[in-house]
Amino acid sequence: MLYISFPISFSNQVHFNAHRFFHPTDILTWYQDGEMELLRFDYVDDRGSLHKNIDVHASFRVRNGCGIYSLRKTG
């Protein structure tokens, strides 16, 4: 199991040449198909509200949030 979080936004962005924000589905391209399986995606939005077990492929409009990924190694 891998539990990991990233700063997320509605698009990939760099703020002040250092702080990176990722679109929630971008993280899923960082490993090869079949290597890892996304079990759950939660996120904290701009206002600090926790959204649990959200479809990562759904329409996404958060400006600055924190994506929380629960992944499992397959095979």
Q: What report would you give on this structure?
A:
This protein is mostly beta strands and 75 residues long. The protein has one domain. 0% of the residues lie in helices and 44% in strands. It contains no helices and six strands. The strands form two sheets. It has a four-stranded antiparallel β-sheet, with no helix packed on it. A two-stranded antiparallel sheet has the order 2-3. The chain starts with a strand and ends with a strand. The model has no long low-confidence stretch (mean pLDDT 90).
Main traits of this protein?
75 residues; mainly beta; 0% helix
Gist?
This protein is mainly beta.
Kindly state the mean pLDDT as a whole number?
90
- Name the assembly state: single chain
Taken from the alpha-carbon principal axes, the silhouette is globular
| Discrete helix count | 0
Q: What Rg do the Cα atoms give? A: 12 Å
Q: Tally of extended strands?
A: 6
Strand order of the largest sheet: 1-6-4-5
Order of helices and strands: EEEEEE
**Structural class by SSE content:** mainly beta
The total number of structural domains is 1
Q: First CA to last CA: what distance? A: 12 Å
Low-pLDDT windows of residues? none
